[in-house]
Amino acid sequence: MARDVALGLKEAQRMVDIIGRPEDQVGEEERKRIALETVENFAHHINKGFLEYRKSVTEAGEFAVTEWVGQGSILRDALGREYIDALGGFGLYSLGIRHPKVVAAVKAQLDRSPQYSQEMLDPLRAHLGKVIAAITPGDIQYGFFANSGTEAVEGAMKLAKFYTGKPGFIAMLRGFHGKTLGSLSLMGKSVFRQPLLPLLEGVRHVPFGDADAVEKALAAAKAVGDGIAAVVAEPIQGEAGAIVPPDDFWPRLRELCDHYGVLLIADEVQTGFGRTGTLFGVDHWDVTPDIMCFGKALGGGVVPMSAFFSTPKIWKVMEPNPFMHTTTTGGNPLACAAALAQITVTLGEDLPRQAAEKGDYVLGKLREFQSRFPQILQEVRGKGLLIGMEFPTDEVGFKVAAGLFSRGVLTAGTLTNAQTIRIEPALNISYELLDELLNRLEDTLKSLA
């Protein structure tokens, strides 16, 4: 594409004008044009591969499903087609889309200052740190705010190496921690790793939920003199398909890390803030990690936000030179306002309890479907509203997701296990919508049977 600054200005101004108009002042023809142009722009300026992968294109008919407006657990595309959101932005929308309390807090802060000066002390970031210290287990007290989950994991890895002086990590097969190079080194699936090898050295992978394997890896590393900084795991594996470990796994991880003198990092990016039926995933087993990573739901589904937090003893290494780990936009006032509002909603509306109760309800219904359609729905698992449905093949899983999409339900597979379809809606989704979602799933399974 040849350089054309005048075209750039014209096109930018056109979309800014559309955004600025009330919804009822954007006509049907203009919306159709937006839907068609979006496909064209993805093909020429984002990634053509998405157009073959996204059900919003392959299953949508003449006009691709172009995201337009959402509220709560309902999404509507540019042409007015409605979808029940059972995907929740992969865990982003724990409070639903555009929760009014979070939106109001962000708008109010926007009228004061959208970013910070980098020199003055910013009160919202400090106050959010105090709040997270108050609600996390054990003596977790200090933290650093960033923008995405993978940044939180990268920071946790740096902190562990900095504190222990050791280079290595033990991570879990099928684990997912992000796709920047450090986080990718921890990932437990070759398709994302292999094209980019070599990654960080000294990372050993063991089966998730197998504490004996972790012990053997730690013992072997010690025997040959390989320094291990930390064991890293998700409390419940999200992208692997809502894999719940045995009840003794996390308590034994804590014991093993203490015994071998390595840190324990809990990646709570997807499980944190109520998703699994407790405030944090590790709360199911009353375990306190040395470092916790947060993301996704932290910003209330309104502003990107992540963090990694640790204890005063470990954080001490960051004090002599606080510029050892920095970011320009992480923990900005808008994100902190969103996170503070998110926590008031999560705690005030007792979303962890809601997730636990609704999760039990959905899992019960899904197990009924499993007994009726055993050749299609082979396994159901999860905690709270982090639920996975396992199918015999990737193809069957895609047919289920596509069938749900054609029936107005938004869901998807996972990034490290394509046979699993996730159900990960807002924690405050109504039982009426859950029933409608389940009815449409039942209809999809019947059509495949």
Automatic annotation (TrEMBL):
<dbReference type="GO" id="GO:0042802">
    <property type="term" value="F:identical protein binding"/>
</dbReference>
<dbReference type="Pfam" id="PF00202">
    <property type="entry name" value="Aminotran_3"/>
</dbReference>
<comment type="similarity">
    <text>Belongs to the class-III pyridoxal-phosphate-dependent aminotransferase family.</text>
</comment>
<keyword id="KW-0663">Pyridoxal phosphate</keyword>
<dbReference type="InterPro" id="IPR015422">
    <property type="entry name" value="PyrdxlP-dep_Trfase_small"/>
</dbReference>
<dbReference type="InterPro" id="IPR015424">
    <property type="entry name" value="PyrdxlP-dep_Trfase"/>
</dbReference>
<dbReference type="InterPro" id="IPR005814">
    <property type="entry name" value="Aminotrans_3"/>
</dbReference>
<dbReference type="GO" id="GO:0030170">
    <property type="term" value="F:pyridoxal phosphate binding"/>
</dbReference>
<dbReference type="InterPro" id="IPR050103">
    <property type="entry name" value="Class-III_PLP-dep_AT"/>
</dbReference>
<keyword id="KW-0670">Pyruvate</keyword>
<dbReference type="InterPro" id="IPR015421">
    <property type="entry name" value="PyrdxlP-dep_Trfase_major"/>
</dbReference>
<dbReference type="GO" id="GO:0009447">
    <property type="term" value="P:putrescine catabolic process"/>
</dbReference>
<dbReference type="InterPro" id="IPR049704">
    <property type="entry name" value="Aminotrans_3_PPA_site"/>
</dbReference>
<dbReference type="GO" id="GO:0031299">
    <property type="term" value="F:taurine-pyruvate aminotransferase activity"/>
</dbReference>
<keyword id="KW-0032">Aminotransferase</keyword>
<protein>
    <recommendedName>
        <fullName>Taurine--pyruvate aminotransferase</fullName>
        <ecNumber>2.6.1.77</ecNumber>
    </recommendedName>
</protein>
<dbReference type="GO" id="GO:0033094">
    <property type="term" value="F:putrescine--2-oxoglutarate transaminase activity"/>
</dbReference>
<keyword id="KW-0808">Transferase</keyword>
